[in-house]
Amino acid sequence: MSTTTSAVRSHAEAVQVSRMVDYLGLFILFFVLTGSYHIHGMLTMGDWDFWADWKDRRLWVTVYPIVMITFPAAVQAVIWERLRLPWGATVCILGILFGEWVNRYFNFWMWTYFPINFVFPTAAVHMAIFLDVVLMLSGSYLFTAVIGGLGWGLLLYPGNWPVVGPLHVPVEYNGMLMSIADIQGYHYVRTGTPEYIRMVEKGTLRTFGKDVAPVSAFFSGFMSILIYFMWHFVGRWFGNVRFVKRT
Amino acid sequence: MKARTDRVGRWSLVGALIALVAAVAYGPAALAHGEKSQAAFLRMRTIHWFDLSWSTDQLNVNDEMEIKGKFHVFEGWPEAVDPPEVSFLNIGIPGPTFIRKESYIGDKFVPRSARLEIGKTYTFRVVLKARRPGEWHVHPMINVEGGGPIIGPGKWVTVNGSMRDFKNPVTTLTGQTVDLETYNEGNIWFWHVLWYAIGVAWIAYFARNPIFIPRLLMVNAGRADELITPTDKKVGLLFGAATILLVIFGYSSTQSKYPVTIPLQAGVLRGITPIELPKPTVDVKVDEATYRVPGRAMKMKLTVTNRGDRPVQLCEFETASVRFMNPEVCEDETGYPEDLLAEEGLSVTGGAVAPGETKTLEVVASDAAWEVYRLSDIIYDPDSRFGGLFFFYDDAGNRQMVIVDAPLIPTFM
Ligand SMILES: [Cu+2]
User: Fold this and answer.
1) What is the pLDDT of residue B3?
2) pLDDT tens readout for residues B363-383
3) Given an 8 Å threshold on Cβ–Cβ distance, is A176 in contact with B219?
4) pTM of this prediction?
């Protein structure tokens, strides 16, 4: 910090520099996350997030939390450990949602003309705030992994239902039962995404009958706990060796 | 410190921008004439489209058009391609410039994948409703799981009007009629904006105070615990509780507003019935087939036996959606896409085959389409065979279809 002390002459000036570092840092963090987390998201949960007719009660509910708890766990590990800041998960989710909305609005709607009500992303801010609040109140990574991770998995479906539910209203279409989302997928032709690629309502949970969504959500929550741990250590390693110590 | 922050900042920004652009620039692939880049053997030996017709090629937004015809699932289906057990009747267009209102194989509605059988012939019909003005290349196509898209002939269709006028009403089983263009959109914006605002508020609350350097110094000094004040904890509790309550509220109000919902529907459709074509009374044996590279022409020596009771003449050879016509016998009246129609592309020496006669016909199919559609690439194939359909007409105008599957030898002189 010796360079800082010689560069500023008064306390007020130090505060000003510090504030500038804050805004710049936040800005950079946000956009680094927007870019990298967004790419991670597209490679892992890709189509489940792109299309309304992939947002089912089985695989979407299972896949999204598991693959998306990664960055929040890692960022929490760094900024809680080093700065005691409790918004690691939220900044990740705000970042990816920003990137996704830009992508969906400009590419999927303005450029390719898919209606927004078919290509909106998954809402996850509620899951992120839950994860952050649990970490802040407990101060324990173990507790956050177990309770936060489980809640992260469980909250996806009910939190998204206000947006997705209306698309699951049934329609009789040409003598076949289809949900509105199924009809969207049929009407708005995706030349490059044939119907059989769609991974929905598959899996071995058939025995649970109607209560598929809660069972999937619990399974997803348990897996999220594990992934939280793994990515916590990824974040730790990243935070330790690379940047913060050298400052 | 400042210079270093700048440098770190600049590079992070460059990295972030690259990642951002890569992620944000991703869009659903809009197919434009991928048909030519597809391996020739795939187009020649998988699905043969024929008897196609287009109800129109000029329409206004909200108007409908119909594409119908037949396709034959080729007996000599290549081994490199999975059999068409999970196949989807699709439409090749650049994005949803049309909506697909209906599609049928046989008389079965096929919004999902279906099972097709090798060696069978099917009828199909697709109804499209124009959504966006422009000139669009519209292809029927079949996606085969494990085989990729098999694209049929593309026709240019002009759509006039404005997309703003486009309406897509659907009536639900609960009795409401909704417009799929905008249905639920306000709801999506409302919830997404609300949650985003809550997320921003959460970070903003902590960003009132210094974020990075002073906190880092405090943590390093072992005073991390002082950084989260009792007030912070209360605010955290408030956010946590509000989040849970809002989720519960949103869920239950949606449940009461939309009490009847169903899971997404999926699964392969079975029981697609093929059509029975009358067994041809003409036998064709390919004695020799060569492709002359410099002349862009395929030469075939055929031994044709007519077991019927009327004389027949060869009128057309179709392969990979390119139709080579013998103008002395027949011509196209369906408005088939020009670039795929060789109106005088088939010359036949030998003439008509009389009833009971066996005769050798020398047939030459030549057209620029061999090059334009890269069909000549077939000679570079590991299994250099060609597949196609011959159409014969008798003197009363009855048509017979004969399927061929034979080796092809290139000549370079
Ligand atoms: Cu095309």
Assistant:
1) 57
2) 999 888 888 888 877 777 777
3) no
4) 0.89
Structural domain tally of chain B? 3
Q: Tell me which residue in B4, B184, B210 faces A18 most closely, judged by beta carbons.
A: B210
pLDDT, tens only, B293-320 = 888 889 999 999 999 999 999 999 999 8
- CATH number for the domain spanning B199: value is 1.10.287.710
Asked if residue A70 belongs to a domain, the reply is: yes
CB under 8 Å to B39, separation ≥6 — which residues?
B377, B381
- Whether A2 is in a domain gets the answer no
**Same-domain pairing of B70 and B106:** yes
The pLDDT assigned to A247 comes to 44
Question: Cβ of B9 and A24 within 8 Å?
Answer: yes
SS (H, E, C) chain A: CHHHHHHCCCHHHHHHHHHHHHHHHHHHHHHHHHHHHHHHHHHHCHHHHHCHHHCCCCHHHHHHHHHHCHHHHHHHHHHHHHHCCCCHHHHHHHHHHHHHHHHHHHHHHHHCCCCHHHHCCCCCHHHHHHHHHHHHHHCCHHHHHHHHHHHHHHHHHHHHHHHHHHHHCEEEECCEEEEHHHHHHHHECCCCCCHHHCCCCCCCCHHHCCCHHHHHHHHHHHHHHHHHHHHHHHHHHHHHHHHHHHC
One domain for residues B301 and B382: yes
Q: What is the mean pLDDT of residues B7-32?
A: 68
Backbone angles phi and psi of A31, in degrees to 5: -80, -30
| Tokens standing for residue B140 | 């029927």
Q: Specify the CATH number for the domain of residue A86.
A: 1.20.1450.10
pLDDT of residue B412: 81
β-pairing, B58-60 vs B155-160, is parallel
Residues B39 and B164 in one domain: yes
Assess if residue B269 is contained within a domain.
no
Q: Does A119 map to a domain?
A: yes
- Total tally of structural domains belonging to chain A: 1
pLDDT, position B1: 46
Q: Which residues of chain A have pLDDT under 50?
A: 1-5, 244-247
Claim to verify: residue B400 and residue B383 sit in the same structural domain: yes
Q: Do B20 and A26 touch (CB under 8 A)?
A: no
**Dist. CA B35 → ligand 1 center (Å):** 6
| pLDDT above 90 as % of chain B | 64
Does B149 lie in the same domain as B65?
yes
Give the three-class secondary structure for B125: strand
A180 falls within a domain: yes
Q: Contact B103/B109 with Cβ under 8 angstroms?
A: yes
pLDDT of residue B341: 92
What was the ipTM of the complex prediction?
0.93
Smallest Cα distance from A112 to chain B, Å: 5
Q: What is the CATH number of the domain that holds B82?
A: 2.60.120.570
Ligand 1 center–CA B154 separation, angstroms: 5
Are residues B159 and B208 located together in one domain of the fold?
no
pLDDT tens for each residue of B96-118: 999 999 999 999 999 999 999 99
**Which residue(s) pair with B102 in the sheet?**
B127
Determine the distance in angstroms separating the CA of B120 from the nearest CA of chain A, rounded to an integer: 21
Of B34, B35, B104, the residue nearest B67 (C-alpha): B104
The residue segments making up the domain with residue A91 are 13-238
Contacts of B27 in chain A (CB under 8 A): 103, 107-108, 111-112
Supply the pLDDT for residue A4.
47
* Residue numbers of the domain that contains B366: 282-411
pLDDT of residue B33: 54
Separation of CA A54 and ligand 1 centre (Å): 27
Tell whether B277 is covered by a domain: no
CA A159/CA A32 separation, integer angstroms: 26
